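Anyone opening a protein record will find just a pair of labelled lines. The record below illustrates this layout.
***
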Amino acid sequence: MPRSFNHPARKDDLLDIERLRAETPGCEERIHLNNAGAALMPEPVKRAILDHIELESRIGGYEAADARREEIESAYKSVARLIGARPRNIAFTENATASYTQALSSIPFERGDVILTTRNDYASNQIQFLSLQKRIGVKIIRAPDAAAGGADVEAMKELIRRRRPRLVCATHVPTSSGLVQNVSAIGQACRDDDVLYLVDACQSVGQMPVDVEEIGCDFLSVTSRKFLRGPRGSGFLYVSDRVLERGLEPLFIDMRGADWIAEDQYSPARDAKRFENWEFAWALVHGTGEAARYAMQVGLEAIRNRVRTLADRLRDSLRALNGVQVLDRGEELCAIVTAWVEGWEPGAIVAALRERGINTSAQIKIYALIDYDEKGVKGALRISPHYYNTEDEIDRSVSAIRELVSGKRQ
């Protein structure tokens, strides 16, 4: 059965950081500021995964899935509740890119169709658009950015009306910066003109409230390993009723998503499971469901407030360092902080910080070509705190960067 806390995640309306860190054993070993890459799993998530693997080792993989059918259904319910959806609109996948690909493949593109997207996007998404352009002849239109950063929503509205795209795609939080794009305003424009809308929420789910009804999307792709604090190798896709009613289905639908009912005929599943594949690491599905429950019990609004406070502290401290350029732009910023450090390639400073027990990540130009070209840098040091990090960890990390920069100049 689903696990739950024995005591509340909050005290006096504030996060109980000490208790949350106690449930995150990795906090004892390192300063983990790579939550935009893969966050530290809390104990309940780890237990959910290991319990299922242990059961598989004793009674068999198929038999364990049958025995844990109720818990599997609970995982669908938990991730649905996390994003304001219903279980029938949830498909489990291996990761956010697999979710995105399944959604994209369901659109019956024809030569000359338009994909309208933004300039702040994940590299894999843009590569897929370019592949469709090369193979089918679709047209890719990238809406201009607003002066403050992020997609110009009014320009997108005009492009939707004028170019009538077959699909609009937006990334809620790009991997290359702390920008939060106004996906809800874009969604309203899509609803007004009856255009399908795909949102990449890989970096936003788990660090802030995300509601698919408020966003107005038809697809939402999500990973488990990042701010949601679930396992690697697991993700999910939200599929709207509008998509299901139109009969859209992935290009390479398999026997999980459809029944072979006649020699030349198959019948797709009536719900979002038509976007799933037969083989699952069910232990990771359990872990994802538990991660969703954990996040909701901690509280998404409390998480958002905490991570943004830590990120603001980090940006302010980095801006005070000579030789460090904070790169984040936008009217709304989140828990991803990016910076260019003078004299250091991103990979080299990540390695130097890791030697000091501080986890961060390196962004190189090909991860966000348009974004980094416009900022005039070859990449970035990406630092992404989560709610279990402390102010002291932020300050110690900034001190380490200061020492590294100063040492390089000597």
Observations:
- The two ends are 59 Å apart (CA to CA).
- The mean pLDDT is 94.
